[in-house]
Design goal:
Blueprint lengths: L11 E2 L21 H25 L7 H39 L23 H8 L8 E4 L2 E5 L3 H20 L14 E3 L6 H19 L9 E10 L6 E5 L4 E8 L2 E3 L2 E6 L15 E3 L5 E6 L2 E5 L2 E14 L1 H7 L11 H13 L5
Parallel strand pairs: 1-6
Antiparallel strand pairs: 2-3, 3-11, 4-5, 5-13, 6-12, 7-11, 7-13, 8-13, 9-10, 9-12
Length: 364
């Protein structure tokens, strides 16, 4: 088992590498007559964004700088900003082309289109019947087990379904390899795995979030404002000749569901080290916050995205996990606007609150 996270280890903010929310200005148009107006609109938006950036930079420059110094600095920063923006736009265009290629050409196992393939229909997903019953009856405690404060586990899928899903993922990766297509990886930290949303599973994962994750989250994380209204769904893979582990990080999510699909493996526990806001994300773990979770095929672990964690090193075999990051736009608006603010769900907020209360207690 890995040692406890060292205090000097930095927590990474994992990014999802999806561009859906950023694509609105870059939508493709089918008709020739719309291309010119689209280009003009893009240019106008580009100029507006650049002017906003210039206004922001100039408003924060020191008054002690000369006119020449201000101009030189602004030109350097603006040049960097333009390069970064161009790179981002190129990535967006490549991502759109990637998705378009998959939609037009990919056939799942048995040479079936995802639109008619049974595995791509949520009603065919083999969820634990007791889980469905518990949600329908609001009897969550009959299936949810709190293994550590804020961390819950439950039986989600049967092993046969897990193997079917793995087979489909392997089929997609093989298809990409045979067609010279580079698989879009799940996020900025995992080098292996695939985004399930990209090849037909997005409706299934939306249903999984709405019908399974959200009811459970409402029950155990009442402070997260419903509804959960967007997701990022993917599979990660760890093995001896691929990624063996994942560094300490927080997810780009409000609630995370992590389900072990298989296969045979040893090691690879999940280490958890406390819930933190952005202001306190780099602080050391508090007493009793350290926890190691052992994966079991078909079982899910539910935790908030800001619960810091890492995947410990796998020691043999191969492990694949389905990860579903879920976001609430309302909760994001309420809690993510000020990175210097500590929120009530942060462990350090609770300590400070306790300290202030005790400091006002009169002693005889």
């Amino acid at each position: 088992m890995d040692n406890k996270i060292q205090e000097e280890e930095k927590v990474k903010i994992i990014d999802n590498k999806k561009y859906h929310q950023q694509e609105s200005k870059f939508n493709e148009h089918d008709h020739e007559n719309s291309l010119s107006s689209s280009s003009a609109e893009e240019e106008e938006n580009e100029n507006s964004a650049e002017q906003q950036f210039i206004n922001y930079i100039t408003s924060h420059l020191s008054d002690h700088l000369t006119v020449e110094e201000r101009s030189d600095y602004l030109q350097k920063v603006l040049s960097q900003w333009r390069k970064h923006r161009k790179h981002t736009q190129e990535e967006q265009q490549m991502y759109k082309k990637y998705i378009k290629t998959i939609k037009e050409n990919y056939l799942g196992t048995n040479s079936l289109l995802p639109s008619v393939h049974p595995l791509y229909q949520f009603q065919n997903w083999k969820l634990n019947p007791k889980l469905i019953q518990a949600i329908n009856e609001n009897n969550f405690d009959s299936v949810l087990v709190q293994v550590h404060p804020g961390i819950y586990t439950f039986e989600c899928f049967d092993e046969e379904f897990c193997q079917q899903l793995i087979a489909e993922i392997n089929h997609f990766e093989k298809w990409c390899l045979e067609n010279g297509i580079r698989v879009q990886r799940p996020n900025s930290m995992n080098n292996y795995g695939a985004i399930l949303d990209n090849f037909g599973f997005e409706p299934c994962l939306q249903d999984l979030m709405t019908h399974i994750v959200e009811p459970l989250a409402k029950h155990v994380y009442s402070y997260i404002t419903p509804p959960l209204d967007s997701h990022h769904g993917f599979v990660v893979e760890y093995s001896m000749n691929k990624d063996k582990k994942l560094d300490f990080h927080v997810d780009n999510a409000d609630v995370t569901l992590n389900v072990c699909l298989g296969q045979e493996f040893t090691g690879g526990q999940l280490y958890f080290g406390g819930v933190r806001c952005q202001e306190h994300v780099q602080t050391p773990s508090l007493p009793n916050e350290d926890f190691y979770f052992d994966h079991k095929i078909g079982y899910g672990v539910l935790h908030v995205g800001k619960h810091r964690h890492r995947a410990c090193e796998i020691t043999s075999g191969t492990r694949l996990n389905l990860i579903l990051w879920c976001l609430s736009s309302k909760f994001q608006a309420e809690n993510c606007g000020n990175h210097k603010m500590c929120y009530k769900w942060c462990a350090y907020h609770q300590i400070n609150e306790c300290f202030h209360k005790n400091s006002h207690v009169k002693h005889d």
